[in-house]
Design brief:
alpha+beta, 60s Ribosomal Protein L30, Chain: A, 5-stranded mixed beta sheet, 5 helices, 5 strands, elongated
Amino acid sequence: MKKSTILLLLVMFVFVIGMGGCAKKQTIKPDEKIEEAEATDEQAEFIPEESVRDKSFSDSSDLEDVYFGFDNYNVSSRYRAILNENASWLNDQENAYIQIEGHCDERGTIEYNLALGQRRATSVRNYLIKLGIDPKKISTISYGEEKPFDTGSNEDSWAANRRAHFLVRFE
């Protein structure tokens, strides 16, 4: 009887421990922390794009990059003026198409940074669309942390890598 009681207690113990391990764990998805950021008018709803990524794009000295704070994809007031200038240039170039690359610093997981980079590119895209740029002329892509502008591992380098970069092609 003593063995059966011990065996029963052991089975119950394993069952209780096993059930505790099966409890629903909360995991943070790559974009959850980002969505907690304060919503602004620059965070427009997602507007689907027509992909033009299969074409050849190149750097343009006419379009300035937009930079972001840590863990942020909101277009700050400092960069709205730059986007206004970029939009003006795009309006003057009827045959120009752009690709907006979203980039991040090296901190965070690959998945998180890809999602953050996409949100940055989409935020910039939506802002340009609000300024009257044809959505069919804009594509986005995220490189996350994979194509850093500055390969250092310090605050200055990280700040330089948190950006939306513009590429242009002409048809």
